[in-house]
Specification:
The protein is of the alpha/beta class and about 450 residues long. It has 14 helices and 21 strands. The radius of gyration is 22 Å and the shape is globular. The structure holds S-adenosylmethionine, iron/sulfur cluster and FE3-S4 cluster (F3S). The site of iron/sulfur cluster has 10 residues, from helix 7.
Length: about 450
């Protein structure tokens, strides 16, 4: 009998990469992916711990699944990801419906844990930080992403310990995969239909393996002729070294959108956050890149209402947004994370943070609307990623990652098409194909 596995993924792109790799691993012991969890023999929840009541959300989700399976045979229930790492054994104690708990650096052991459970009904928890063994194991298993735009994790973990962030605790210390291991995985993805490769890491631009840096990886991967576009995320301003800035002069395939989280426009707050850079250093990177290619645009992450944020600090964040004109950004109210330095600091009043968040988002949205409006009647290169949900149109992305929807069919998936933009809203462009032969990139 076919064993079916369902994975629900929360969190960042790295968690998405991990979920895909878990599918690749469990295939070896006879599991097949299902998109319908009601059908599943194995239910995996790949969790995120970055904000809010992450832990409670996981127990809530498990409670929901429990109800659905009340009258059916219980699936094997596995919790993976950053909440699994943070909570470890406590999850098995608190929720008997959970059978296995696996941290983000240990999921290469999932098959052993499943087989062990099937044989002995023994519940287990594994949360070692062993990125080296994990990637060594993963490099021997094909990455079956099969997507036009494929994720490729090159770096994990973090040594920076920003005072608000759980990542150093949930993903462990900074680790860079060996250069050749990444090139081999990129080649496999390119040979199997990937037109865009998205290099991932919690600190992707801190990548360092021997003398190789992210800039070397970019130049090497773009030699694969099937790869038309390259992107990387998430970067820290401190690691935006000259070799990486200069790569925008030399690379032919690196897309002109730089996602560089700044968190706040105030030096005082950056200092309190332990971000280890100033606003003038951030702007220096911005101006250097704009000089190399004025077409380059920035996106960012912002934390609003960090402990100690006063009106003046907040105004400085607004000023920075006006200056840089970020075309797309994530902004969230500060969420105290257990175990981090900022967890016990005096909080900004909730109403004040909400009011500031709305103001920030209005400013960010205005930038987005202006940018998207300016693209109307222009023709853009769009990499087609998939059909839309109703399967009547296709969905792709511009060089700046903006979603574009237009009439097309599944033969268009994986092509870079020239699309004329007819209309836009804040988040999406709507257009029509001009020519199917134009495969030009950036
Ligand atoms: N390494 C990246 C950097 O240095 O900017 C960020 C990676 S983190 C996974 C993604 C984003 O989550 C951060 O940029 C930050 O804006 C947000 N974040 C992290 N901890 C947070 C917290 N406690 N409250 C609100 N947002 C948070
Ligand atoms: Fe978190 Fe990024 Fe800071 Fe590391 S550098 S602690 S991942 S915000
Ligand atoms: Fe969330 Fe872990 Fe990613 S906390 S954002 S899934 S690194």
């Amino acid at each position: 009998m076919k064993q079916k596995i369902f994975i629900k993924t929360f969190g960042c792109q790295m968690n998405e990469y991990d979920s895909n790799r878990i599918f690749d691993i469990v295939k070896k012991i006879g599991y097949y992916k299902t998109d319908n969890y009601y059908d599943a023999n194995c239910y995996v929840l790949n969790t995120c711990h970055i904000r809010d009541k992450a832990k409670e959300k996981v127990y809530h989700e498990i409670g929901r699944v429990k109800k659905v399976f009340r009258l059916k045979k219980k699936p094997l229930v596995i919790v993976t990801g950053c909440v699994a790492q943070a909570e470890n054994q406590e999850m098995l104690r608190r929720e008997p419906f959970i059978d296995i708990v696996i941290g983000p650096q240990s999921y290469h052991e999932i098959n052993d844990k499943i087989l062990n459970y099937v044989e002995k009904k023994e519940k287990t928890e594994i949360t070692e930080f062993d990125a080296d063994t994990k990637f060594d194991y993963l490099s021997k298993i094909k990455n079956n992403s099969g997507k036009a735009s494929s994720f490729l994790t090159i770096q994990e973990g973090c040594d920076k310990f920003c005072h608000f962030c759980v990542v150093p605790y949930t993903r462990g210390p900074e680790f860079s995969r060996p250069f050749q291991q990444i090139i081999d995985e990129a080649k496999f993805l390119a040979d199997n239909g990937a037109k865009e490769i998205f290099l991932l890491g919690q600190n992707v631009n801190a990548y360092k393996s021997g003398e190789y840096r992210l800039s070397n990886l970019i130049l090497e991967i773009e030699k694969f002729s099937n790869v038309k576009r390259l992107r990387f995320t998430t970067s820290h301003p401190k690691d935006m070294t000259n070799d990486l800035v200069d790569i925008y002069k030399h690379s032919k395939k690196l897309m002109p959108l730089v996602h560089l989280p700044v968190q706040s426009g105030s030096n005082k707050i950056l200092n309190l956050m332990n971000r280890q850079h100033s606003i003038s250093e951030y702007l220096k990177i911005f101006y250097k890149l704009k000089k190399i290619n004025p077409k380059i645009e920035f996106s960012s992450d912002f934390i609003i209402g960090y402990p100690g944020e006063e009106e003046k600090d907040f105004e400085e964040t607004l000023d920075l947004i006006k200056k840089v004109k970020f075309i797309n950004s994530y902004s969230f109210i500060f969420s105290p994370r257990p175990g981090t330095v900022a967890a016990n600091l005096k909080q900004v009043k909730r109403e004040v943070s909400i009011e500031r968040l709305l103001k920030i988002q209005n400013q960010l949205f205005e930038n987005q609307i202006i940018m998207n409006k300016s693209l109307e009647n222009k023709s853009l290169n769009v990499l087609v990623e998939n059909l839309t949900k109703d399967k009547r149109q296709v969905f792709g992305r511009t060089e700046f990652m903006t979603p574009v929807i237009f009439d097309g069919n599944k033969e268009d998936i994986g092509k870079i098409l020239n699309v004329k933009i007819k209309r836009s809203n804040r988040s999406t462009l709507f257009g029509e194909i001009i020519s199917k032969s134009n495969q030009k990139v950036a």
